Amino acid sequence: MILDLHVHLAYRLARPTDLLLQIEAADLADQKVLSTSLDTSDVSHFVRVAAEDGLGERIWLRAEEEFHCDYSARIDVDRPTLDISALDAVAPHLLPGDTVRYLMPSRYCPSDEFQTFAAAEFGHLEGGARIAAMRDWINGAFSYVPGASNAQTTALDSFVQRQGICRDFAHVLITLARASTIPARFASVYAPGVSPPDFHAVAEVYLDGTWHLVDATGMAPADTIARIGVGPDAANVAFLSAFGQVTFVEQSVSVTQA
What we know:
CATH topology of the largest domain: C8orf32 fold
CATH architecture of the largest domain: Roll
Radius of gyration: 18 Å
Structural class: alpha+beta
Shape: globular
Number of domains: 2
Number of strands: 14
Strand content: 35-45%
Distance between the termini: 8 Å
Number of helices: 4
Strand order of the largest sheet: 3-6-1-14
């Protein structure tokens, strides 16, 4: 699948501010960047650095008064569609070292508080079958409500409120997976089926020796997703982190199938 991406961001800055930008789709074996362009307003510093787990890049910027950028890319997503319920879990003692931290609680994913619930609700299932059941449970029990959550909302908050946006659905699935001793991480992505159009968030779970994308909102099948970056939760994969006071001006995200 060929995806065309177009992103526009604009902010006002109270003073010279350091910014960490992560909006470019990663160039990976299952998603190749065919073309890309990134234009920014005048900045005094622009340096690319590796992102979490070496997946994609971030950009350190320093800007004054205002910052705006325009990003466009064409991505060839070539990822097979798998039945996740047929995949096996990896025993904890056999997990690669770089997956271990994704078993642990994180800022938005307090998985240690969900072990009893996960065992009671999904304990009769193993591996991918458990992940599929968790995905379907979240999709059925939660309402997708823009504005229902904020930057402080955790998976526990969303679990209680039974509503949220994509990041909240992803956080709950990640939390339940970790509570089931299945490594899970947060993925910031682009996908054409997202409504309203925006950056999207899904979970990635480690099954059968590799990572698999899972969207609890149901809006983005794995073979339509272009990954931007990954991390323990949304705190690590923000599209823009500002180390100073900034004011949002405007944003647009367009993802279309070519």
